[in-house]
Design goal:
Layout lengths: L4 H10 L2 H5 L6 E3 L2 E4 L11 E4 L4 E4 L4 E3 L1 H9 L3 H12 L8 H29 L4 H9 L4 H6 L3 E3 L5 H7 L5 H6 L3 E4 L2 E6 L4 E7 L5 E8 L8 E3 L12 E2 L1 H11 L3 E3 L2 H9 L5 E4 L6 H10 L4 E4 L3 H14 L10 E4 L6 H18 L2 E2 H10 L7 H14 L6 H19 L49 H4 L2 H6 L3 H12 L3 H4 L1 H6 L5 H12 L8 H10 L3 H12 L12 H34 L3 H23 L15
Parallel strand pairs: 13-14, 13-15, 15-16
Antiparallel strand pairs: 1-2, 2-3, 3-4, 4-5, 6-9, 7-8, 9-10, 10-11, 12-14, 16-17
Length: 648
């Protein structure tokens, strides 16, 4: 039986070599590798080595080496198909059926790889030609040398709607393959498919084997809605499951025992140029669990590098939320923050390797950033605020699935809480009276020592409340008939009236789960249109009408008009709209996460019904109720009666 290369690669990606070999050979960790006694020869000193990054094993006593399939064949006497069948079962993958359909799919994938490689070569030639002058100037200004351009196969897409299409057609590529590869824009309203990437510096995105599967394009013209434009999701390209430069960074990450993840393609190129080849980037997404797994296969504690401004803080805090359920005793994250106003590209050009090294050496462990997220910029001068912090710290460690690690995180939070709040007077009502006299009692005192009202306000980044959605509005008959939650109407209407906000919050908007089918449908259409030049509300509405969504858009906007939020109007200041949209998106994501936890807890309770599970279920319900109450009761911002007070 012949197996598709993608199927074999997926098995290798799911099963570390050390796991497969370790069932027959007692392995011991040695630096970045494993070693043990040869299973093929009797020996006293280990000469058998396993390298998970290289996905290979080496037996120097017998001269044998290979991958997981070779090992199973050599040690169990299986044929190659039998070894694949065995390991596929362990990896949880069903065997592909060799049918006329699967043969056609393999042929189709091969055709996609071929046309994408030809596109990469086309962009390369355009960069060095007459049309690529502006692109070469841009790369020179960013300090990207000719050697770096060659190493990363950077190219240029000319400002022509049909240049790539016509070139590929001249090499016998059919239109359907170009569309499936994500190279052309098409649709019911597009009579003639045209090039997706135009007047952009092109960065090929490769799979683990180094084959081109997609592109990222950086616009040269200012004012373009999407400064960076990625290929759409395709048969080959799933952006949340990939890392840019993964295929080149794996070896250097293994050699150094470290890998760094940054936010942009240019950042990767710039850092590699000054001596950091072990750098990768997400492909236009916030960090995903799949990307975390890829990072951990390269190093046990990857460093995530963020800008030092408020946006960088928010991105880091979102990464904390993603990674917490996934960490364990041997896998965590570190967080490096750049000087405010600089990204890795800027720092590499201005300070070189030493400046980058200094930032990476100051990277904070995950526990520090988790604490920062919960405390920075908050006031803890009242008992209520302190109690709120204590409760949040109890909640934030819950997603950690490893019980031992969760216990240690809880202890770390308690220690930091005690250090922040300091000693307090014992409450006589707790039934534990002190035997010491009044002069000996610890706690806040007068006379210039510790303030009886706790530590001063910590200034800096501060979350603020979401604008109110009154219960009368959320339960209005029109909204109930439409089954459209007010928050979903708020999010859609904000983008309809302020389209430029979509680029700023693209990843959050794209990843939201909407309960209302029409809201989800309209959101998907807006995301699909994001690559077009939709600068103003009128242009966006016209584009939606062309796609047959005029009635859906009108119904959702009509529902949104009943919400008492002045920022929804197109004439509202974009900063106001941006502020409230971010709050709505954050709350929506938190609600989604809690609802998922609730379903898991309800299933668990139905299965075992013990007191611990019931307590967890009650706690989740209480947190949901708190969030719902916060949304309903926060007052004074977003209503038609007045503008928001500025933050201080």
């Amino acid at each position: 039986m012949r197996f598709p290369p993608e199927f074999l690669e997926e098995i290798r990606a799911r099963l570390p070599v050390s796991e497969v070999v370790g069932r027959r050979v007692r392995l011991k960790k040695s630096g970045r590798e494993w070693n043990g006694l040869s299973p093929f020869n009797a020996e006293k000193s280990p000469s058998f080595f396993v390298n998970d990054v290289k996905m290979a094993w080496f037996d120097f006593s017998s001269g044998k080496n290979g991958n997981i399939f070779d090992f199973v064949m050599a040690t169990e006497g299986l044929s190659f198909p039998e070894a694949v069948e065995r390991l596929a079962g362990e990896a949880g993958l069903p065997l592909p059926q060799r049918t006329a359909e699967t043969v056609a799919q393999e042929k189709r994938r091969a055709g996609l790889h071929e046309v994408l490689e030809k596109a990469a070569q086309f962009f390369l030639r355009r960069l060095v030609g007459r049309e690529g002058a502006r692109a070469r100037d841009y790369l020179a200004q960013r300090g990207i040398s000719a050697d770096s351009q060659a190493a990363f196969r950077i190219g240029y897409a000319p400002n022509d709607r049909h240049a790539l299409r016509d070139h590929l057609a001249g090499q016998d590529a059919d239109l359907e393959t170009m569309i499936e590869a994500g190279l052309l824009v098409h649709g019911d309203e597009v009579k003639v498919p045209y090039d997706r990437f135009r007047d952009r510096v092109m960065f090929p995105i490769c799979d683990r084997s180094g084959r081109v599967i997609a592109f990222g394009g950086r616009a040269l013209e200012k004012g373009v809605p999407a400064k960076y434009l990625n290929s759409p999701e395709t048969t080959l390209f799933h952006k949340g499951a990939l890392l840019y430069n993964h295929h080149q960074a794996r070896k250097s990450a293994h050699d150094r025992g470290a890998v760094v993840a940054v936010e942009g393609y240019v950042d990767v190129v710039a850092m590699a140029a000054v001596g950091f080849p072990n750098v990768v980037a997400a492909c236009g997404t916030a960090l995903t669990p799949d990307q975390c797994d890829l990072l951990w296969k390269m190093a046990p504690e990857p460093t995530l590098c963020f800008d030092g401004d408020a946006a960088g803080r928010r991105a880091a805090f979102k990464a904390v939320e993603t990674t917490l359920p996934l960490i364990g005793p041997s896998r965590s994250m570190r967080f490096a923050f750049l000087p405010d106003g600089q990204d890795p590209d800027d720092l590499a050009r201005s300070g070189g390797a030493s400046a980058i090294t200094e930032v990476l050496e100051q990277a904070k462990p995950l526990v520090d950033v988790l604490w920062l997220r919960e405390t920075e910029g908050h006031d803890f001068s009242t008992p209520e605020q302190r109690a709120g912090l204590e409760r949040r710290l109890h909640e934030v460690v819950r997603p950690i699935t490893d019980e031992s690690l969760r216990r240690h995180y809880a202890a770390a939070m308690k220690e930091r809480l005690a250090a922040l709040l300091g000693p307090r007077r014992r409450d006589p009502s707790d039934g534990q009276r002190s035997n010491r006299g009044p002069a000996q009692r610890s706690g806040p005192t007068a006379g210039g020592r510790r303030s009886p009202f706790g530590p001063p306000l910590l200034r800096g980044y501060r979350e603020s409340g979401l604008p109110p959605m009154s219960e009368s509005i959320s339960r209005s008959p029109a909204m109930m008939r439409a089954a459209l939650p007010p928050r979903e109407a708020l999010i859609i209407a904000s983008i309809l009236n302020h389209p430029t906000l979509l680029e700023r919050h693209f990843d959050q908007v794209e990843g939201l789960e909407f309960s209302n089918p029409e809201a989800a449908r309209l959101r998907d259409a807006i995301v699909h249109l994001s690559g077009e030049e939709l600068h103003d509300p009128g242009t966006l509405r016209q584009a939606l009408a062309r796609h047959g969504l005029e009635d859906v858009r009108a119904r959702i906007e009509a529902a949104a008009e009943r919400l008492p939020h002045w920022h929804l109007r197109a004439d509202a200041a974009e900063s106001d709209a941006d502020h409230v949209l971010q709050q709505a998106l954050t709350l929506h994501q938190k609600m989604q996460a809690l609802h998922k936890q609730l379903k898991v807890a309800e299933r668990a309770l139905a299965q075992d019904g013990n007191d611990k599970t019931f307590a967890e279920l009650q706690d989740i319900r209480e947190r949901l109720s708190t969030l719902i109450g916060m949304e309903a009761t926060v007052e004074g911002f977003g209503t038609s009666s007045g503008r928001a007070e500025p933050e201080v």
